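Margin note: ligand = magnesium ion.
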Amino acid sequence: MKTLQRTLTIIKPDAVRKNAVGDIIEQFEKHGFRILSMKMLEISKHQAEQFYAVHASKSFFNSLTNFMSGGPIVVLALEKENAIADLRKLMGATNPANAEEGTIRKKWASTIEFNAIHGSDAEDTARFELGFFFAGFELAK
Ligand code: ATP
Ligand code: MG
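Resulting structure:
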């Protein structure tokens, strides 16, 4: 049985720079995601390090957090049955070279790093990430 889930997505600085925001949000709506909240902001290097703390030991951590704090991002709280896995499917593979046709990364990602979009990967990370960017009162009922 599929359950109603919430997930957090980020339209990353590379995609904002490419004027892809409208196209990506249209994809969310076309695929049945309900937008519970949405905002554009810039995060600091420190905030990017906190958000991506699970990757702190990776070789790409410094570069990733510079990238994510290097320009405006758009964050959305999304809701749908099976939202977490369905969003990951719509995003496509981390490396756009492996992303399937019709996915957001196939269309907008440039490299494995500058890959246009983030999506929570599990229920516990979705909870952490939604709470990182949104207070409960900011989410639509
Ligand atoms: P995200 O967490 O942003 O949704 P993901 O879950 O597909 O992406 P992760 O393995 O969690 O991929 O990596 C987080 C992010 O770090 C990637 O989206 C990408 O921007 C960057 N990244 C991942 N692997 C590499 C790499 N080998 N070199 C450079 N950057 C990378
Ligand atoms: Mg990830």
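Helices lie at 13-17, 21-30, 45-51, 61-68, 83-91, 104-108, 123-133.
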